[in-house]
Protein 1
Amino acid sequence: MMVVVAYDVNTETTAGKRRLRNVAKTCMKYGQRVQNSVFECSVTPADYLTLINEVMKIMDQEKDSLRLYKLGTKYSEKIEYYGVQRHLPVDDVMMI
Amino acid sequence: MMVVVAYDVNTETTAGKRRLRNVAKTCMKYGQRVQNSVFECSVTPADYLTLINEVMKIMDQEKDSLRLYKLGTKYSEKIEYYGVQRHLPVDDVMMI
C-alpha cells in the first residue's frame, strides 16, 4: 500500500537536521522524497510497522511530529500535484 | 471528503513566507494546520476545486510544490500520528 509520511521537525538545530536526514534515509528505502519533509512510501503491512518503528527510534517525540496517511493499494487517483516536482536527495535539508 | 494538502516552499525569502501564510489562510477555511506545511481539509467536491484554484493563485509554480492526497470520506483509520500534536496558527512560519 501507499503511505504518505509527513515529518515536521525544527531544522534550525543540528540535531533536528540530523533527525530529518535519518528519517529521509529510512523512508527512501521504501519510496521517494517528494517534498522536503514528505515521503511517499510503498509498503507491505509488515514493512509499514517496520517503517514506523524505525522512524520512532529516530524522532524526538517531544519536539517532532510524524503523520502517516494510508492511501491503500489503488492510490494513483488519490494523488494530485502541481508546481515543482522535486525528487529531493536524502541529504538535502532545504529550509522550507 | 478529507484532503491532505502539503505545500513545499522556500521560506528563507519574504515572498516564500508570505505564500505559505496565504496558503495556510486558504486551507484553514476548510480544516486545520497539522504541521508547518501540511493541512488536513474537509471539503465537498466543489470545495476541493475551489481550494485548488485558490492555492494555485497564491503559489509560484516554478518554485513551490503542492501535493494533494484524497483520503475519501471514511478517513479516520487512514491517519496515524505520533509525537507533538501541533495545531499551528496561520501566522506561524516556523523554520522546519
Protein 2
Amino acid sequence: MTPTTFNPGKGAGSTVGIAILGYGTVGSQVLRLMVENADEFAHRTGGPLEVRGVAVSNKEKHVGTLADELGLLTDDARSLIKRDDVDLVVEVIGGIDYPRELVLSALRSGKSVVTANKALVAAHSAELAEAADQAGVDLYFEAAVAAAIPVVGPLRRSLAGDQVQSVAGIVNGTTNFILDAMDSTGASYDDMLAEATRLGYAEADPTADVEGYDAASKAAILASLAFHTRVTADDVHCEGITNITAHDIQAAKAAGYTIKLLAICDRLKDEAGHESIAARVHPTLVPRNHPLANVHKSFNAIFVEAEAAGRLMFYGNGAGGNPTASAVLGDIVGAGRNKVFGGRAPGESTYANLPIANFGDVPTRFHIDMTVVDIIGVLAELTKIFAAHGISLRTVRQEEGTEKNARLLVMTHEAKESDLAATVETLKDAPSVIKVNSVIRMVGE
Amino acid sequence: MTPTTFNPGKGAGSTVGIAILGYGTVGSQVLRLMVENADEFAHRTGGPLEVRGVAVSNKEKHVGTLADELGLLTDDARSLIKRDDVDLVVEVIGGIDYPRELVLSALRSGKSVVTANKALVAAHSAELAEAADQAGVDLYFEAAVAAAIPVVGPLRRSLAGDQVQSVAGIVNGTTNFILDAMDSTGASYDDMLAEATRLGYAEADPTADVEGYDAASKAAILASLAFHTRVTADDVHCEGITNITAHDIQAAKAAGYTIKLLAICDRLKDEAGHESIAARVHPTLVPRNHPLANVHKSFNAIFVEAEAAGRLMFYGNGAGGNPTASAVLGDIVGAGRNKVFGGRAPGESTYANLPIANFGDVPTRFHIDMTVVDIIGVLAELTKIFAAHGISLRTVRQEEGTEKNARLLVMTHEAKESDLAATVETLKDAPSVIKVNSVIRMVGE
C-alpha cells in the first residue's frame, strides 16, 4: 500500500518527543542509552530526542529506577500517547491485545511507532500498516525478528531490487541453545531444557519457545517482507522441538548433520508456473558444513537466497535486553529522522499477494528412523512402500538393534510433504516395522 | 551534515527517469533486471522506473545488446545526465576522475546518484556528500562494499542507535579465494594466484586486489560509516598478501589459525580516555573457530562488534555482476522512492570527527616466524629482547630445522604496533637469529 498522507517534517534541529511504553529489560536499556548518548542521538537524528514519559502498569515497582529519577513514570499510557509533544511511540510491553490498542491509538494520532513486539506484528500487520498509511506515519519493527541482527531493514530496503527465493533462519535463541547443547554433550532434551532454564536462556514457561510459536511469528514477518505478501502466524505450519531425542541428535551427527529449529519461507512454483509461498517452523536436519549448522549457543542467523544476490547470511544476538535495545534505538533514529526531515520509510508491501501453499504440497525431504524386524527381505518390503508413494530413497543406514530387531535410518529424496506423510502412515502399519521412532525434515543440499 | 534542501517528492505513481552510466557486467545486469521485472520495480518504488539512456564510451562495442535494441545507447553521458526527465543517475563505470566529474554534475543538477564505485567513494566522499546535501538529493553506494551483502545500509540505519566498537571484514573475494585455496591445498601463493586467474576470480593485473588497495577503499568507507568520521583510502594502512608463503599457512594451521586478508576498523581509547580510530588492511591470523575463518572461496563477510548489539556478521557474495546489480537495484528502489514520496536517506555522518590514530599506536599482536641458531640459551636471549621492548610472549613453538638451525614461531600478547615493529628490527640483528621469515598480525581472541 502506498502512503496517502505526506509528512513534510519539522525541520533540522527540531526536537522529537518520545513516549516509551513498557519498562522491562528492553525499555530500561533504551532509556538508559538514550540518556547516556543524548548528543550522539541528536546528531544522528538531526534534532534532540526527548523522552516525555515512560508508561508502566504499576509505578511502585519502578521506584528508584532511572525513569523514576527523571520523573518520567506514568501509569496512564493512553494519555501519554496523545500528548501534543509526543511524536514517536516506542512499544516494548509485549503481549498482543493491550499493545495493539495502544499502537493503533498512537498511529491514528499521527505518531510514528517503533515496536519490538513480534507477536503483535505477526498477528495484526494489516491493521497496523493501514493505520500507519492513513496517518502518513512510520511503523518500524526491526527488533521483532532476531533483535539486533539487521534483517527487516535489509529485506525491506537492500533487497528491494532483488527476488527472494527462500529464507531459512535460526530465529529462536532458547531452542538453538537446547539443540546445540544436546549436539555437543549428547544429553537429553529434558536435561538441556533444565540447563537452559538454569542459565536464563529459557523462561519458566518455555512453551512459546520450545513449541515453535515464537519462531512462527518471526517466520510470518520474514515471509511477508521477503515475498511482498501478507502472511500471519496462522499461515505458518509449526512444530516444536519437544520430541527430539538424544538418539535423533546422535543419528544426525553420525550422518554428518545437526538438528536446528528453522523458520523456513519458500517461494514455490508449480508445473503451470503459478507461484505460491510457504512458511513453516520445524526441527530440521542441516548438513554440518552449512553456515546455519555453525550457529551455536543462543545465537541467531538468517540465511537468504535471492535471485541476483545469491546466498546471504546475517548472524548475531537474537535476543536479550541490549541487542533488542540496539534494534529499537536504530528504529528510533530512523523514525525520528523522518519526523525531522520528512519522508517515510517503506511501509508494508503486499502487492505480490501470492497464495499460501497447502502444507501438503510443500516439497521437502524426510529422515525416518524406525525399528524393524531384522529379517531378510525387510528392505525389499520397505522399498516397495516408498516406491508405491512415488518416493525415492537417498540413503539407507542400518544401526545395530537390540535382540533380533534392527534400527533403520532412511533419507528420502525430495517429494511432496503429503506423499511423505502418507508413506510414514503406511510404514507404521507394515508388518516388518515395529515402530517409527522419529520423522525429521531436511534442508540445505 | 544535515540536508539544507527539502525534497517534497513527485507523488505516488510518478515515473522515475533513470540514466545508467556504464554498460559492463553490472550495468547490463541492472538494465536487464529492470526491464524483466518492471512491474515489481514499479510496485516497490511507488511509480514506474524508466531508463532514459545508457551512456557508453563506444556505441559500436554494444551493438545487438539489450540497451542497443531498446535504443538507449548514447556516447554523450554529460547530456544524458542533464536531461529534464532524468531523476536518478546510476554510475557503474569504474575509475575515479571521469565518474567523479559525472557524479558531481548529476548531484549538482538535482539528480540522486547510485554508485557501485568504491574507489570514487573512498577518495572523494566529502565532496560528493556536500554536493548531495546542497542539492537535497541522495547518494547511495551499498554496492561499493561487499556487493550484495547489506552492510552500508545496516551501518547507516540499523546500527544508528548503537556505538560500533570495531569492524573486521573479508571484503575482497580474489584474495580470499587465493588464501583459502592455499589453506586447503598447501599450494604456493603464485600457484593459487594462477588458479584464481584461470577461474576468473583474479583480473589479468591483480595488483589492486593482492596489494590490498581494493580492500583499503572499502575499509575507508566502513570506518567512515561505523565511526561517523571522514576516512579516506589514504588514511588506511595497507599491506597485501603477496609475501604470504605456503609455510606461513601451514604454520598457522598447525597452531589452529588460518590467514585472511582483513579490513580492520577499530575505535581506540588512550589512558586519558581520548578516542581515536584506526583503519588497516593486512594479512591476519584468525582462529579457526572464529566465524571469519569459515568464510571460504570468494565469499565476503563483515564482522561488526557494537556496544549494545554485540557481535554481528554479514556474509555473502562480495563481487560479480549479479550480486553487484542486486545492491545497485536495491539502492535504485530506495532513491526512487524518495523521488516519488519525498524525504531523503541518511547522508554522510561525520559529526564525531574522531582523529585517525598513528599506525604505530594501534594495539595488535604479532606472529613472528624466524630461523635461529639451534644452541642452548637462544630462547633466553630472545626472551630478553622481547622483554626489553615491553612485549610479553603468549606462545613459543619450535619446528625442526635443517642441519643445526631451528625454526621458532612466536606469538606475542597485545602491544603497540611500533613496539612490536621495533622488536622485530632488534631480532633481525640478534646474533642467534639467522632470519626473520615472516611477521603476521593476529586478531580475534
